[in-house]
Each structure stands twice: as C-alpha cells, then as structure tokens.
Amino acid sequence: MDQNQHFFKLNNNNNNNNNNNNNKLSKIEKIIYKRERLKMRDIKIILMLAMFLFVVGCVGTQTGDAVESVSSNDEPQIVKIGLNRDGFTTSVSSVEVNREVILMNDGTLGGCGLYVVQPELGINANFGRSDTYSFTPTETGSFTYTCSMGMYKGTLKVI
Q1: Partners of 104 in the β-ladder
Q2: What SS3 class is residue 35?
Q3: Residues 6+ apart with CB under 8 A from 8
Q4: Cα 115 to Cα 8, 23, 80, 112, 156, distances in angstroms
Q5: Confidence class of residue 70 from pLDDT cuts 50, 70 and 90?
Q6: pLDDT of residue 60
Q7: How many whole angstroms from its chain centre is CA 137?
Q8: Are 107 and 83 in contact (CB under 8 A)?
Q9: What pairs with residue 103 in β-bridges?
Q10: Is 97:159 a contact under the CB 8 Å cutoff?
C-alpha cells in the first residue's frame, strides 16, 4: 500500500467515525430536545391552569352581596363598609334616596382604602380621621365608589 492509499483509508475511517459520532450526538440531542419540549409543555399547562384558577377566583366572588332590607323611617341608614382583596364590601346593597346614610368602618379598611370617594353622591370620606361618615343621597341609581387611588371599587345602589 502506498502512502496516498494509506492516507485515503485513514481519512475514510475518520469520516466514518465522525458520522457515527454525529449520529450518536443527534440521537442524544433528540432525546434532550424531547425532554425539553415535554418540560415546556408541562410549564405551559401549569401556567394556563393557574391563569384559569385566578380568573375563576376573581369572577366568582362579588362584593356587597349581603342584602339587608331598608325600612322607610327617619332614622339614618347605617352601612358598614369594609375592604378585602376584591375591593370594598358593604353590609347592605342598597339605600334609600333623600335619607341620611352613615358609612361605618368595619375595621378592615386600610391604606388608600381609608379614603372613599364618590363625587355624584358627594362622598369624600376619610376613615383615617373618623370611623363614620354621613351623607344624604339625592338621586337614584347605581354608584361606583373608589379609594383615593382608584385601586379598590365598590357599588352602592340608591333606590
């Protein structure tokens, strides 16, 4: 065997080894790729489930569901107002028009939730100073009130 033939044979052996190594690497890479793809799929499923539970949790709870009958007399209407992660809560869902309403802090108000505003009803309560705030609604309707920053919301219906 002359020198060129020997070099050619060595070169072919190296090429065959490289092809085998490439095939082995590609098989390993395929296995890793499949595992990574499965991990990503699992992460996507978990994230979608978490988002679904969050949305259901937010939509499933409503504030101000407790309904208390409002009697028509001259005594002020007392409405306890509180705060939870969903927003403001009240002890009654509606009050009477042209009758004094006293908002009372139920002890759960805090932060910017200590300041309750509703311009149409003239509400500008500062529960940091006092645990009560009184006003008299002069028009009927459903009114959204907020904290001073607009982060928390609640609704009061005037009938």
Answers
A1: 80, 132
A2: helix
A3: none
A4: 88, 69, 14, 6, 16
A5: very low
A6: 43
A7: 32
A8: no
A9: 79, 133
A10: yes
Location of structure tokens 């002069």: 138
Counting beta carbons within 10 angstroms of the beta carbon of residue 143, is it exposed (0 to 12), middle (13 to 18) or buried (19 or more)? middle
Mean pLDDT, rounded, for 15-27: 60
More confident call, 55 vs 42? 42
Q: In the prediction, which pLDDT does 136 show?
A: 96
Tokens for 33, please give them. 């790729």
Q: What is the DSSP letter of 111?
A: G
What whole-number percentage of the chain has pLDDT above 70? 68
Task: Count how many Cα atoms sit within 13 Å of the Cα of residue 19 in the half-sphere of its side chain.
Answer: 6
Q: Is 79 helix (H, G, I), strand (E, B) or coil?
A: strand
| Tokens of residue 31, six digits | 């296995």
Average pLDDT of span 67-87: 80
Which of 134, 130, 61 is closest to 99 using CA atoms?
134
